[in-house]
Amino acid sequence: MHRFFVPPDWLEEDRVTIAGSLVHQIQNVLRLGPGDHIVILDNSGWEREVEIARVGKEHVSGQVVDKRLASGEPRTKITLYQGVLKGRRFEFALQKGTELGIVEFVPVISDRCIIANLDDVDKKRERWQRIILEAAEQSRRGKFPRLRPAMLFRLACEGTRRGGLSLIPWEEAPDMEKATSLRSVLQQAEQPPFSVNIFVGPEGGFTPDEVELARQYGVIPISLGPRILRAETAGLVAAAAILYELGDLE
Ligand code: SAM
């Protein structure tokens, strides 16, 4: 059954009225019509099964036939603070991170970012938001991940004051052999963390000063092993390992 996130005000009681480009998608792309069922989500954590009643040029209307808690959300809330990457690489991290179960993305401008200003990043926001929404629908998420405004590295570190376990994968740790492993950090935690912040650098990685600043905010540098992962891979590997270790991939 196809799933669609819609603005909450399209829902009233036990009816939904769909407008905009979704009408074309339902009518002409998916060729759905009266009697077909779809799932409508308003990002509240609930999902509604809807039977299509009428398909018009401007609107599609339907009747809610079932309302249930939306599944598909992990217990562990992971925020990925991702150094902004050039071109499609950042979009890859958004799409795959959404499929994996990341709940929040924060684009970060750090010293070695090739895209060096916030305006350029903000221009991509709408496209990034669409990529997240489509990935959330495709992967049957119960809620779509939040895309925070782009911010400078120091402000991103401030964000960790909200709490949770904060990690900064760093491949240049002076003594990689002794670098803290992700597994040891998770196993040493008194109880499974409810939220985890992961900082991943841009193409050029983080500078030692940035890692030192993160450390001052209680962010733990960790190794993701001896192989150097591309920037868009590292956050996914860390998130997948955390979700696996904490039982969120069952
Ligand atoms: N130059 C490559 C690129 O363009 O993608 C690699 C970029 S750099 C290594 C990207 C980020 O991935 C780093 O800032 C770090 O956060 C993370 N990373 C990659 N491999 C890692 C590893 N083996 N251990 C810890 N962090 C790693």
Topology readout:
Elements: E1 3-5, E2 11-12, E3 15-18, H1 21-29, E4 37-41, E5 46-55, E6 60-69, E7 77-83, H2 88-100, E8 104-109, H3 118-123, H4 125-138, E9 146-147, E10 151-152, H5 153-158, E11 165-169, H6 182-188, E12 195-200, H7 208-216, E13 220-222, H8 231-245
Parallel strand pairs: 1-4, 7-8, 7-12, 8-9, 8-10, 11-12, 11-13
Antiparallel strand pairs: 2-3, 3-6, 4-5, 5-6
Helix pairs in contact: 2-4, 2-8
The structure holds S-adenosylmethionine.
Describe the fold and architecture.
The chain is an alpha/beta fold and about 250 residues long. It folds into 2 domains: about 5-70, Ribosomal Protein L25, Chain P (Beta Barrel), CATH 2.40.240.20; about 75-245, 3-Layer(aba) Sandwich (Alpha/beta knot). The protein is built from 8 helices and 13 strands. The strands form 2 sheets. Strands 7, 8, 9, 10, 11, 12 and 13 form a 7-stranded parallel sheet that branches. Strands 1-4-5-6-3-2 form a 6-stranded mixed sheet. The chain is elongated, with a radius of gyration of 20 Å. S-adenosylmethionine binds near residues 169, 170, 171 and 229. S-adenosylmethionine binds next to helix 8.
Q: What do the pLDDT scores average to?
A: 94
Order of helices and strands: EEEHEEEEHEHHEEHEHEHEH
Q: In angstroms, what separates the terminal alpha carbons?
A: 22 Å
| Global morphology | elongated
- For this structure, what is the CATH class of the largest domain? Alpha Beta
Key traits:
Alpha/beta knot; alpha/beta; Ribosomal Protein L25, Chain P; 13 strands; 2 domains; 250 residues; 6-stranded mixed β-sheet
